What we know:
The protein has about 140 residues and is α/β, with parallel strands linked by helices. Helix content is about 35%, strand content about 15%.
Amino acid sequence: MSDKPSVLFVCVHNAGRSQMAAAFLQHLSGGAVEVRSAGSAPAESVNPSAVQAMAEEGIDITAEKPKILTTEAVKESDVVITMGCGDTCPVFPGKRYEDWELEDPAGKGVESVRPIRDDIKRRILGLLGELGVTPVSA
């Protein structure tokens, strides 16, 4: 068991919002946070507009693959952040849950994904502060 805080990001397809959030948290925490992401109905691949938007931030998510949400992933996480997965997200007592209302980037071009990406980055920086982790670079 790790003493690092662990965060799970969950959205429906695990192809956009949760992938960007996980990548930002991994990058900005410098590995000080254990990061997971999953989806209730994972897509075949990560949204290309999300990949492009993150590349503009210097973060490469081309190798990421959408993953199915498991109860184990929820149990193993200290914080579970949902992004529009509704009732499909399992809830366990004693876990910290947050629901981030973010526009779904599915089917949108990179111009429309940039504001979503920037909102996620802002929220990640706030989350790092709450977890007591100093960002390595913003």
